[in-house]
Specification:
By secondary structure, this protein is of the alpha/beta class. It has two domains: about 5-25 and about 85-425, Aldolase class I (TIM Barrel), CATH 3.20.20.70; about 425-490. About 50% of the residues lie in helices and about 10% in strands. It has helices at about 5-10, 15-20, 30-40, 45-55, 65-70, 75-95, 130-145, 165-175, 200-205, 220-230, 240, 245-250, 270-285, 305-310, 315-330, 345-350, 370, 390-400, 410-415, 420-425, 430-450, 450-470, 475-490; strands spanning about 95-105, 150-155, 180, 185, 190-195, 210-215, 260, 295, 335, 355-360, 405. Strands 1, 2, 5, 6, 7, 8, 9, 10 and 11 form a nine-stranded parallel β-sheet that branches. Strands 3-4 form a two-stranded antiparallel ribbon. Helix 3 (about 30-40) crosses helix 5, helix 4 (about 45-55) packs parallel to helix 6 and helix 21 (about 430-450) packs parallel to helix 23. The protein starts with a helix and ends in an 8-residue tail after the last helix.
Amino acid sequence: MSSATAWIANRIKRDQIDKYLEGGRDFIQDEKIWDEINSAREPSKERAREILAKSLEVQTLTPAELAELIQVRDPEMIREMRETALKIKLKVYDSRIVTFAPLYMGSYCVNNCAYCGFKRENETARRRVLSMEEIRRETESLAGSIGHKRIIAVYGEHPLTGVDYIAESMRTIYDVKVPLGKGHGNIRRINVNAAPMPVEELKLLHDVGLGTYQVFQETYHHETYARLHPKGTLKSDYQWRLYAMHRAMEPETGIDDVGIGVLFGLYDWRFEVMALLHHAIDLESKMGIGPHTVSFPRLEPALNAPYVFQSPYRVSDQDFLKVIMLIRLAIPYTGMIVTARETADIRREAIYHGITQMDASSKLGIGSYSEDDGIQQEDRQQFILGDTRSLDELVRDFAKAGFITSFCTAGYRCGRTGKCIMELLRSGREGKFCKLNAVLTFQEWLDDFASPETREIGMKVMEKEINEIREKNPNGFKIFYEFLERIRNGERDLFL
């Protein structure tokens, strides 16, 4: 038996699935979801506004309520829904947009997903796993040249990138300190996108500083899932993947921030939106809190993955923005991520539909941050990016639109995670901390990394934010402004 085969044989722990099932079934019941969708009718304006009012109070919608909003066709009500989604984003997260970068660690994978350029049978893909020294160089580029403070580390499902490798790579990233004119550049938060893991491995990752743990279901539709993830692969086990977030939030792991998502375009978007809500509700019910983030990847071209072009469920730009808006309304407390898979135009519009996080200066090739000239190479990437803007450009675009880029990681280091952050988000009190820290980190980034043009525009939005803090948080303003002046004088990584 090969080492990979032996590794695969011992991955799935049935007892860590069965404990969550009800009557032997998981919480995604395809026929029930379709009944919820098909039995809903377009609501009256009065009824729609009643549901929107509930969203605006940062209350999770019921599946029946979301199904009604899915049916809305009236242009006036669509506009009101979009306006409400933006109001919720501003109420819960203020004018902040969090930025990060993806760091792909390896392109080996034991799975054979029909839509992925890293699938096992793709013999054209150039396979590689980063060494710790290469990870160090990638981190130096991200933290020392670009100015990122947080990353999403992405790992394929393979023994070469198993839990021990993940833990060592995280220690390496956190260890990197790049000298700057003032202080040093470093990554302060590592989120991880990786395969489902058993509880004991998740605890290890928590102990080395795991931020948010992401596992996307890809599609919640059982039949479609089985067709796209061939039998005999690890990923073919639907329930092992579905309950990855439940396992992550077991008390013994220590993890309390998890991220869910769907690869839109694999199945009907209406079903997937409903299933995301069911997932959030089941997490709330069984684990006490819902998802810290929801992500919205959409099918993109990938090398030797023809299903991307064959899928009958490709999501139009209009429907994609509607999907984002609906999730903001249905799960109003959650952070929402749209990555550089999408074009710059779509991402600009997505902000006004409720998005709170985006990546920038993104590269997907293994080792690309320290080695490449910025040209995308299909045989080295999982898929092709749609938005290649630099972090500097993204920050400038946000500032022109009146949004501030947040590099804050203070809440995580101060224990404002899990149930604590959820309570703050639902009550609208989160901004008392995060707005202050966003401004502090923004000043730090402008001083250390911004181009002259971006700094000039950024300082204008900074003044707006400072004035709002002075007016809305007079009790906290004195200590905040003291910290701000210290940062302007060269101190770094101050937070409240």
